[in-house]
Amino acid sequence: MAENRRHVRGADYERVSTDYLAKRQLRRGAAGWVLLAGLGVAYVISGDFAGWNFGLAEGGWGGLLIATALMAIMYTCMVFGLAEMSSGIPVAGAGYGFARRALGPLGGFATGMAILIEYAVAPAAIAVFIGGYVEALGLFGLTGGWPVFLVAYAVFVGLHLWGVGEALRVMFVITGIAMVALVAFIVGMIPQFDAGRLLDIPATDAFGASSFLPFGIFGVWSALVYAIWFFLAIEGVPLAAEEARDPRKDLPKGIIAGMMVLLVTATLILLTAPGGAGSRAIMESDNPLPESLRLAYGGDTFLADFVNYVGLAGLIASFFSIIYAYSRQLFALSRAGYLPRWLSVTNRRHTPHLALIVPGTVGFLLAAFTQAGDLMIQIAVFGATVSYVLMMVSHIVLRRREPDMERPYRTPGGVVTTGVALVLALAAVVATFLVDVTAALITAGVFVVALAYFWFYSRHRLVADAPEEEFEAITRAESELS
Q1: Closest Cα partner for 375 from 58, 134, 131, 128?
Q2: What is the pLDDT of residues 366-382, one digit of tens each?
Q3: ∠ CA(422), CA(425), CA(427), 5° rounding?
Q4: Alpha-carbon distance values, 250 to 13, 191, 244, 310, 347 (Å)
């Protein structure tokens, strides 16, 4: 028994039987780079339809423009770093796996929990927005949100249980429908564009305030949180590593292609929506794109109704795809022993059914009992920005400590690129406290509880045979032989 357990770098590892991993197998070869790019866009596309516009109320159009440019730089640099790490370490744990390799068990667990918080809470927030959308449109005669939350979770968790290949193809179609709505909106708003409407928020007496920055210089910082919504969750593409056809090639191509699409949509939406309707008119809207069309055209139009109804597909696409993300992150952490091992068991279709159902149940209860979509999004953003800091540190550490590691794709600019992303991610973490201290403190509290669980319990029960942990075992064996 003692030979099956080892103590390495403050953690205890156990060797498991082949049966353990046989019950935790994902479906290999289910996704090529095109589906992976679609997955990346699907994660994020709801942010084009709603959420970003609240940044107008924090920084004005100029402040949100600068914040969006900074976050676009951060995400692009980060995506290049993730493309390299996912090609060299293609495991389902993704960010947790990268940090585990670079920073050890504690750093890996902290990164994995930050990502899990982001992906477990975000669908609950999106479910609230879907419920509000359905209710506002008068669909099905519903006047309350919780039946919509229940149906959304039941249907889309069910599709994921059906199989990853089938689920990703359905998601790809839904994302395509949402993209049609975005293109229709942009084309419809171009004739109504007036640059003067971008700067129609009156300047305040804040430091550095002007017509371009009506809320002053600090408004730019506050707007960072909402600029993130244009790109939030693109980092989830590497979670599909063990289900990709050729992960070393497909993951870099998929995540970079997805990011390029998002850069274009973010730029066009930020210009056309406030440029056609006015920044002041939509800065607090829950449904900014249809409202922009109605304001620009002086009332209801077919295009406004079309974008209103079809825009629901954007929310559904992100909801559907982030369910996939939380299940794979939970699967990886559980398989390695950081979280209860029973959560990583897969069914006969090689989907982690418990990792889909358990967080889905928690998310439904969060949505049904709180209906606080804004608060949950802020919690998700805080978890995301913390994970970005840790993942960029991981890239820099791996470049310095393991220069000879196989890297089929290499980040342009190397550690300078990820260093830029790291600095901007740290600024974004601070910005979350400026916008919503409550959300930041709630997330910090969850982290403390999770780290206590790791320190007192799970670090003594890690699985040496898990893909994310095997490197440690191999390194230990080589050092003993030498």
Answers
A1: 128
A2: 988 888 777 887 888 88
A3: 115
A4: 32, 39, 7, 30, 26
